[in-house]
Amino acid sequence: MSENAVAVVILAAGQGSRMQSDLPKVLHRLGGAPLVGHALSGARSLEPEQVIVVTGHGSEAVTRAVAKLDPDAQCVLQSEQLGTGHAVQQALPQLEGFQGKVVILYGDTPFIGEDTLAALASHTADLVVLGFEAEDPGRYGRLVVTDKGLERIVEYKDADAATRQIVLCNSGVMALDADLLRLLIVRLSDDNAAGEYYLTDLVALARAEGRRADVVTCDEEETLGINTRAELARAEALFQARARARAMEDGVTLSDPGSTFFALDTVIGRDAIIGQNVVFGPGVTVESGAEILPFCHLEGCHVSAGATVGPFARLRPGAELGGDVHVGNFVEIKNTVLDEGAKVGHLTYLGDAHVGEATNIGAGTITCNYDGVMKHRTTIGARAFIGSDTMLVAPVTVGADAMTGSGSVITEDVPDGALAIGRARQATKLGLATRLMAALRARKETR
Ligand code: UD1
Ligand code: CA
Question: In terms of pTM, does the model score above 0.90?
């Protein structure tokens, strides 16, 4: 264990009753990721030895989500919500033998910045609290600071009128030495206005032990917690504003920043150009110099350098676009790899497929990948030419340099270099159109 070892405890047991939801609060999504995912990614920025999430309401669902988001995180159950101090106590068995700093975060507070967390974790005081000057201090805990540092935290409910005048408030984030936490946590009592075990009482207990407590401050914006749908919507707006600003700082062109929507894990390379009304769901990477034209929806996909997508394209999970690939309007791509230079210009669905280098997919092509029960694969070789309106009934393979005739229903494999035509032969009846029209008009007149 290194000297500066960090462990993170994320409190996520609360019900969040003001969300009016059957979903546990920390699973509501912000930037495409559950709230607890934001706390986990903040935690990860500290390169901690351990991350422990305290669950309670909806613990099964929360535990499942945490396992997906961060397989190394551990979950512990707080079966009764007896307060923030009690919640942290539930994590202590997991921290047995751990030496270093314990950083405590909330699962419903997604904006604490990495720099702020680093400042807390590296602070030399025995206990550090993240505070902020509140525009409206409302019901936050108040930080009582003297020239000897942080003296105590007084919860709003327990505060007298003078203490309520203090505007320096507790964000809830705290960092303290693991041994000190173990020593003090058993001394917490629930003898207070709320009848809860307050984590905040650790400050006065540490001071009584002669330890040093201090405050690190941050912008109020970072401490924004989510308790209602309205706050979730405000948080989403803030998340998007920050993501847009960051993308532009990183050298991405956003034609209309206000209509570009990012997810927590969106990665976009320098000199990429993003048009108006583009939505990035979770799991998207766009390489340098790629262009996403207006009105596209991307999720779980990768777009390589030089590729162009849209307008009006949908890239679903597993879409992998190689260099210089072109995906045009009204094209949907799922679980499909497009090798370098492949082109899918118009009105096409490709699912569970592999498209070789420089292959051209004609307008209206569909991979018929689903038989009602199972999904099947379509493989198309390099430099192939798929005629417009081809139905590729999977499983099926079209070889390299092969072609399909327009309107074909391809049910059998097509060898390299072959041309496959699978459609009814055309019959042309001379003069029949003229005669048919005349007959129809005559019938209408006699009605
Ligand atoms: C807490 C702080 C308060 C601070 C405020 C900031 C205490 C006693 N008070 O108050 O000083 O200004 O946060 O928002 O710590 N939780 C559990 N188990 C529990 C209780 C809470 O996991 O038994 C979790 C909640 O899910 C939530 C977080 O801890 O994520 C904070 O709990 P909450 O009840 O919102 O605390 P506040 O009363 O707002
Ligand atoms: Ca709260």
Answer: yes
